């Protein structure tokens, strides 16, 4: 654990960046959202969100836009709507039934499906009828543990349609992690598959579900999709999707649900304690996920082909593969596999094949592509791309510039979108037709969002200062509570700064007042009286041509309180005898100043990451401080920590 920092002053503001990228003229001229949106929202924030809500189809209009009993919000009070109707049926009714909703690419090459809005309407209706037959009703919880196959978004929408609350659990989590999430929500049904494809081979899911469910009294049925054809053990709770769903009527009349009816729970691991079940509701969530998708990606549903590479088990997949894009009538790609199967150009091949125009991915993927080399994307035609997005971690300036140049052909704006499971939708981001982008900056709160950077006394910091990110006013897609634990909701998010939402991230304002995200405050280091962000030191390391990826932690140090320890993946082989550690330490000192010079540089083959690609610095801190390694259940690949430990002489 990092030492207590009760009197945390502001974050040191070390990194300088002068590159600017103006929006392309033609994109700006035809942009969905212009600079006026900021003024409109400043004049009347609630009226702004009302207009965003009017983009949806309501069965009954709300009578109060916001009922705010801090920290509990209700949006669009007494309004009624059906999320699945908004995402599917209304497009069919408008004559767009033949429009493609999803181009689905399986991991095995050649395994693909095209799903129109009319197809989706039939599949979702059948699945909704099946859930009803299995005894699932309004307010019941359904746990979903599936690979990235079409039945996954269909399951989400079927739950939304009947008012059941879905809880998607990443297909990579262990039986213990799955069981604790099923128990916390008292799920009545689990939807899963025999397995999925990973790196060219079938990988089983069902045995994990069997293991998890054997002591879950709340679970009445397990609905199983046959995907890989693997042998599965049958239990008396199991029913096959093809037996139960396929024979249902393809008609289902959607009932309108209350704007505040729960839509889903999604667990975030957090750094400590039991996972938090983040609860999202219906009207506000769909309003903001749809509006931000329209604004931040400048989505033109008639012509764009949009691809978000996230897993649907992550909030990014919920809001920007399923709900936002479908509410907007978009055509999207869903890809089942990994970027390196069967070869390292798979992403670029998919973009070329479908003429993808908008790509939304994560810094961890971008850094991996940089490491693999510029020659791989250069072999493909990526000229269809017009907007690039990034999410999940701060994007290092070098990664931003590489992404823009090698993927975006130096034409496309890059939108760095800051948000969280808890915020439900994008909060801070450039607008591609408005903002002159700065590599590494998330820039400004979106219209209708009131965010700021404050010091530990909750005072707004001046331009040039750093501190804590806060959100000062409620927003439509905010979490409503932590499932079953209002007190934990209050303590976690609303107690650190009275009256403000505290997301747990550090941030700085540059001289223009633009925002830079600096990572979780738990990761901020205290070195000789300076608060230094791990993000800035990592970005400095990544700006060295020999470095592919870097993770930085503060380890207890008798002289300086904490000392900076860096874990670095190199871009290629390094000559014997070369003092790479010295070279990198000097590079950081030159880029950021001597205060940020790492005490230690450890060259490692991999970094520990979550399934959504976030570096788990907590585990690296354990290594740097010679402790036994903590909870690894949310790690994408648990073998990584052994690889790292094997590289260490003696860390401290
Ligand atoms: C959407 C998502 C949330 C945390 C968040 C922050 C980090 C996400 C970021 C970013 C800097 C960005 N984060 N996007 N940091 N710049 N563009 O990632 O949700 O998995 O809940 O993570 O991710 O630290 O607090 P979630």
From TrEMBL:
HAMAP family: Ac_CoA_synth. Mg(2+) binds at residues 542, 544, 547. It catalyses: acetate + ATP + CoA = acetyl-CoA + AMP + diphosphate. Coiled coil: none annotated. Its cofactor is Mg(2+). This is Acetyl-coenzyme A synthetase. GO terms for molecular function: acetate-CoA ligase activity; AMP binding; ATP binding; metal ion binding. Residues 35-87 form the Acetyl-coenzyme A synthetase N-terminal domain. It holds the Pfam family ACAS_N. Keywords: Acetylation, ATP-binding, Ligase, Magnesium, Metal-binding, Nucleotide-binding. GO terms for cellular component: cytosol.
